């Protein structure tokens, strides 16, 4: 296969996994990055993942930047599990312990944090403010601000809050996560109906004993994932907004892939502290015309980090 060869770092935040590319010196059109994302995310291919992350250059505020492409090639506004991984790469590349990172349409603060557990590289990130105005998504026909309200087109039984982080999230608190129902609603949104043309991430959240949250997300452009950082941030904020948990208190947010510690302010800023685990590094070729990956060579495996995370 004739392809473009990339150095990649396979990494994850809470089991939300990505191939990360240092793209600071790579020039590709958006459509070509979309093809790289499809190729490297394809689970039956040599790499597999929920999307790709690009470490990009900074700007007058930021030391470095992040772009993320979902598995389907779409480019969302942010990814807070991915940001921790990019932050690790960016902090290491710039020799800093904390920095501002540039995202597609916003900025976030990132810093190395105390390890969540021995050997678990941990990053703290602060993003926001969360926004309520669904005209930006757009989500039409349900008013401008949707807080704990029924969206009959999705379900007569659930109450959703619509929050942009700035990527769009529909958040519903439930007694117990019904995964089949989450997939059903996620797929309605994924179909990009006329009232929701840019789709949305959909999450069900349980408030568990001790004030912990459990969040399960059907992600736009991916499907069910092990975890979604922006959804965990949005859920923590909505828990405060709806009086389920206090603002400004650090809570444990569990997900299928592990956990993060999270807090949210009344102003809509969210802070997450979680892992940025490197599993392996290597090189892979991508045929841009076919969106196909091949010839993977793994050059180093980080068994110590994999084991440290498994212990969480
Ligand atoms: N997994 C991410 C969110 C990735 C983007 C999302 N699928 C979207 O399209 O908005 C996270 O950790 O925040």
Describe the structure.
The protein has 312 residues and is an alpha+beta fold. It is globular, with a radius of gyration of 18 Å. The model has no long low-confidence stretch (mean pLDDT 97). It has a 17-stranded mixed beta sheet that branches. It starts with a strand and ends with a helix. α2 links the parallel β4 and β5 (98-102). It has 5 helices and 17 strands. The protein folds into 2 domains: 4-111 and 277-310, Diaminopimelate Epimerase, Chain A, domain 1; 134-275, Diaminopimelate Epimerase, Chain A, domain 1. The ligand N[C@@H](CCC[C@H](N)C(=O)O)C(=O)O is lined by residues 16, 70, 76, 79-82, 167, 201, 219-222, 225, 228-230.
Give descriptors for this structure.
Diaminopimelate Epimerase, Chain A, domain 1; isomerase; alpha+beta; lysine biosynthesis; DAP_epimerase_DapF; 2 domains; globular; 17 strands; EC 5.1.1.7; 312 residues; Diaminopimelate epimerase; 19% helix; 17-stranded mixed sheet; single chain; binds the ligand N[C@@H](CCC[C@H](N)C(=O)O)C(=O)O; 5 helices
